[in-house]
Amino acid sequence: MNNTASSQTKKRRLTGTVVSDAMDKTRVVSVDRAKKHSRYHKYFTATTRFAAHDEQNAYHRGDVVIIEETRPLSARKRWIIIERIGSAPVPVVEVESGVEADQESAA
Predict the structure, then answer these.
(1) Which domain holds residue 78?
(2) Nearest alpha-carbon partner for 65 in 27, 34, 12
(3) Is residue 103 part of a domain?
(4) How far apart are CA 65 and CA 29, in angstroms?
(5) Kind plus residue range of the DSSP H or E element containing 1
(6) Assign residue 49 a region: left if phi > 0, alpha if psi is -120 to 50, beta otherwise?
(7) Is residue 95 part of a domain?
């Protein structure tokens, strides 16, 4: 019997968005999936949050990343971040010049 085949199991990989980067070397990744209601057969979005390991603190809030299942790293961490796919678009805020804003507020 060959034990190497059983130890080389395929690890799960999920795609999600980093929602928290407040902890050192840990990121919280939110993964969305479509789930079907058992009675009404309507699909809805179910969200799961995973604590994932980030050794270099390289990933930040809004980044879209791939996480992979691994051995337990702490009480809650069983995932590591593999790579960044993209990042969330940064909202653009238009700022009015001070002269025009003062004239509008005086009127």
Answers:
(1) 11-90
(2) 27
(3) no
(4) 8
(5) none
(6) beta
(7) no
* Per-residue pLDDT at 87: 84
Task: Identify whether 46 is part of a domain.
Answer: yes
Block mean pLDDT (10 aa), the chain, length 107: 65 96 96 97 97 96 96 97 86 71 60
If one counts every other C-beta atom within 10 angstroms of the C-beta of residue 96, the result is 9
1 token code pair: 């019997």
| Predicted local distance difference test score (pLDDT) of residue 35 | 97
Which stretches of the chain are assigned E, i.e. beta strand?
13-20, 26-36, 43-53, 63-69, 79-87
pLDDT value at position 96? 77
Please report, for the domain that includes residue 49, its CATH number. 2.40.50.140
Could you identify the residue written with the tokens 């795609």? Answer: 15
Q: Which amino acid is at 35?
A: K
Structure tokens at 67: 């996480």
